[in-house]
Specification:
Layout: H1 2-25, H2 32-45, H3 47-66, H4 75-107, H5 109-113, H6 119-148
Helix pairs in contact: 1-3, 1-6, 2-4, 4-6
Length: 151
């Protein structure tokens, strides 16, 4: 049981951790070269939430099934699941498509030759940054629910 808890906690930290870094990575108005570099780092970091998030959900379900946590309808359990789903909706439904558009621009001829980021791309980057701040706040709330386990 302790090993399962360890897997759950570590996978949660590994899964949500890059989100906090991504908020700092994808902000401001970097040069075109810096933006391409930051987007490449973001792409590499996105691997960890996919694996960590999956392991967190599976280990969490195993903990509920094997543990003494009581009813699944408890506020902290339902709240944790709702927060997790909200994080996924923001990332998959909002961030990923915009990062794709921004990457296409930055990797294309217009992005490579740009000395200043145009307004449309700056707006995309600003939206991505704000979404990561929201995801970070949701992640902190999720950790608080998992640690405090309020009734």
């Amino acid at each position: 049981m302790k090993l399962l808890v360890l897997i759950h906690v570590l996978s949660a930290v590994i899964g949500i951790g890059p989100t906090f870094f991504s908020a700092a990575l994808l902000r401001g108005r970097p040069s075109s070269a810096a933006l391409r570099h930051n987007l490449a780092l973001f792409s590499t970091l996105s691997f960890f939430p996919k694996i960590g998030g999956t392991l967190t959900v599976l280990s969490g379900l195993a903990l509920i099934w094997r543990g003494q946590y009581g009813s699944v309808t408890q506020l902290w359990l339902l709240g944790s699941l709702v927060l997790y789903v909200l994080i996924q909706v923001v990332v998959l439904g909002y961030v990923v498509p915009r990062v794709g558009r921004l990457t296409a621009w930055a990797s294309g001829p217009q992005g490579r030759d740009a000395s200043v980021m145009p307004g449309e791309q700056a707006a995309l980057l600003g939206g991505i940054h704000r979404a990561h701040l929201v995801v970070g706040a949701l992640g902190l709330a999720l950790f608080a629910l998992m640690i405090l386990k309020p009734s």
